[in-house]
């Protein structure tokens, strides 16, 4: 009988021992899961910004604004803006994902979340700032009047009542509207300049670098009055403040290490990424 009771006691002891070991193992697994979740949470905080596609920097450009963005025979976009966007993506540790979009609808695409950002030579204006946020400027430019070589036009005032061509969605419409109601729009500044050279319109108002590039490629146009200087920046959706901060940090690095200047000199032979004196 004693032997029987001893066996029962030992059996009960073993059951409790095993149960205790099992509980300890479960607790260890739970503890491990908690640590893993904490790690995941920290990782999420490190990349708190939203992206259209994970691991990719999806940015829009027109592909019709030589030499800032242009489309080659294969449909791939190249140019100053594209190289800057690719450099930003590299700094962010993301794959560049360029998207071609008509210039006039790019800001709306950023605002509604179709693109993470616009790297498309957008001038910072109060009107645009109501729709999106802007990074620090990545280059400085300005609006200039271009005419045919035989034109007597020199200043904006000289264009009073004349026909002026601009690109759709550009800020240059503001200057044209000061002197005329006769305004023609194109999807591309380059097409507007080509039309001017062919005898259409009295003038085109566009970025002075775009006009300089077109003239250098043999287009018979002539630069006239420089109307103003402007700042161009990356546009980001207002609710994506964390991404904007990261882009600003990337631009600062690219400015300090000379990458922006190097890209600029490749396309323009000069550095347009610093504020003109």
Walkthrough of the structure:
The structure is a single chain. This protein has 277 residues and is of the alpha/beta class. The protein is 43% helix and 22% strand. It is built from nine helices and 14 strands. The longest helix is centred in the first third of the chain and has 45 residues.
List the helices and strands and how they pair.
Blueprint: H1 2-46, E1 56-61, E2 64-65, E3 69-71, E4 77-78, H2 80-92, E5 95-100, H3 106-111, E6 117-123, H4 126-129, E7 133-134, E8 139-141, E9 143-147, E10 164-167, H5 173-179, E11 183-186, H6 189-197, E12 203-207, H7 208-216, E13 222-226, E14 230-236, H8 241-256, H9 259-268
Parallel strand pairs: 1-5, 1-6, 10-11, 10-12
Antiparallel strand pairs: 2-3, 3-4, 6-14, 7-14, 8-14, 9-12, 9-13
Helix pairs in contact: 2-8, 2-9
* Spans where pLDDT lies below 50 across 5 or more residues: 1-6, 15-45
User: Sheet bearing the most strands, described?
Assistant: 6 strands, mixed
- Helix proportion range: 40-55%
How many strands? 14
Calculate the terminal CA-CA distance, rounded to whole Å: 106 Å
Based on Cα principal axes, name the global outline.
Answer: globular
Query: Which structural class is indicated by helix and strand composition?
Result: alpha/beta
Amount of beta strand = 15-25%
Q: What is the rounded Rg?
A: 30 Å
